[in-house]
Amino acid sequence: MAEASGVRMAPGNGENSYATNSRLQEKAILETRPVLSKAIEEVLSTCDSTMVVADLGCSSGPNTLLVVSEVIGAIRAYTKKADDTRGVEVQFFLNDLPGNDFNFVFRSLEYYHNLGGGKDTPPYYVAGLPGSYYRKLFPRRSVHLFHSSYSLMWRSKIPPELSSCTHLNEGNIYIGKTTPPIVIKMFQEQFQKDFELFLTLRSRELVNGGRMLLTFLGRKSEEMLMHGDVATAFEWVSISLQSLVQKGRVEKEKLDSFNLPYYAPSVKEVNALINKNALFDIDHVKLSESTWDPLDDSEDDTVLDCANSGANIAKCIRAVLEPLIVDHFGEDIIEELFMVHASTVAKHLEIAKAKYPIIMVSLKKGMD
Ligand SMILES: C[S@@+](CC[C@H](N)C(=O)[O-])C[C@H]1O[C@@H](n2cnc3c(N)ncnc32)[C@H](O)[C@@H]1O
Fold first, then answer.
1. Cβ–Cβ contacts within 10 Å for residue 82, how many?
2. C-beta of 215 in contact with ligand 1 (< 6 A)
3. What pLDDT was estimated at residue 354?
């Protein structure tokens, strides 16, 4: 069965690639360091000398190997602290959908291996694993740690009633100001199905006491319409596409039939599904906020240069959405679309700084 979502990041390492435009995601990976270290310490204190780690939705670019290096760093620190002489070895699996630029990952890996990593680096082995994490990926009880960053808000598919155009989300590409309640419910139900399936599959694949560290985009409140701050970024893309419709560059029907396979849940929704299935104990859950401008590290609410910040945000959204947009609308509109998008974002930034919520959840599998 072909993968239905079509999701993949812009390949390679050119100006508009994901590899060049993934600093937001890098910051999020670095922020999880203490929670990741704790999960690794707990796994290492119970496993034998081989640890199996899988990164789900690894994409291609510096972040893919940053996860590998963060895990190795945590193992190295634990081994030193606990004076562990077992000679721990690590098997990594880097997972993404088959459309991911795995060739780029493998080429970067060669360079990474050559760096050596220092004398305390545990022996490690890295394999690519193409396939959807909404399907079985591993044998039963074979993985010690699942890691996933900025991926689980992507759905396995667009809700079927939307992809078949039985229902329309006119003028929007996600949950926007004018999305009908029935369509919002479809996005939400797709999330519930996907997330429950994900938990069930991973709990089979984890060893008893195994861990999962998941970071994904969410929303702060239970508010549905516009879906909290996170939908704002997609609303800007919708507005930009609407302006191309007005110019006659895009057919209205094309826009009305384009929806993102996406859903940003609230912490309450996430907790409810984890507790409903009782497959995992929640060790840690946290909601934080990030600015949309990947180059803005300031804590305050001022935007110094709206045009510049708008261009930064447009690049980062483009690296994520370009392949899906090209699949549906064709290549011709891309440059124009993201120029309009950058100025749409800049106008918004004159009113308010753009931020979005991130959910981090660390889970432990009980005995089965
Ligand atoms: C925004 S990127 C995040 C990449 C990386 N983890 C990071 O933090 O930079 C999201 C990744 O999730 C992948 N993805 C989305 N749905 C997936 C699925 N069902 N199975 C595996 N990977 C998926 C996408 O292809 C994409 O590479």
1. 12
2. no
3. 85
Query: pLDDT, tens digit, for every residue of 325-334?
Result: 999 999 999 9
**Buried b vs exposed e over 199-212: b needs ≥16 C-beta within 10 Å?**
bebbbbbbbeebbb
**CA angle centred on 106, ends 100 and 110, rounded to 5°:** 160
> Of ligand 1's atoms, which has the minimum distance to the CA of residue 64?
5
Q: 89-96 and 50-56: which strand pairing?
A: parallel
- Measured between alpha carbons, how far is 336 from 246 in angstroms, rounded to an integer? 13
pLDDT number for residue 116: 66
Q: Find out whether the beta carbon of 320 lies less than 6 Å from any atom of ligand 1.
A: yes
State residue 43's pLDDT score. 94
Q: Where are the alpha helices (DSSP H) in 128-229?
A: 160-163, 181-205
Question: What residue type is assigned to position 57 of the chain?
Answer: G
Closest residue (by CA) to atom 23 of ligand 1? 57
Domains of the chain: 23-365 (3.40.50.150)
pLDDT at 112: 72
Distance CA(326)–CA(328), nearest Å, equals: 5
Cα-to-chain-centroid distance, residue 297: 20
Whether 96 lines ligand 1, by a CB cut-off of 6 Å, is yes
Check pocket membership of 100 for ligand 1, CB cut-off 6 A: yes
Q: Quick check: CB of 217 below 6 Å from ligand 1?
A: no
Predicted confidence at residue 2, as pLDDT, reads 41
Three-class SS of residue 160? Answer: helix
> Which ranges of the chain have pLDDT less than 70?
1-3, 114-117, 225-230
CA of 119 to the centre of ligand 1 (A): 32
Q: How far apart are CA 218 and CA 227, in angstroms?
A: 9
Beta strands in the chain (DSSP E): 50-56, 89-96, 124-130, 143-149, 206-217, 280-291, 355-365
- Quick one: pLDDT at residue 226? 58
Paired tokens of 162: 């939307």
Q: 21 CB under 6 A from ligand 1?
A: no
Q: Which two tokens stand for residue 54?
A: 């899988």
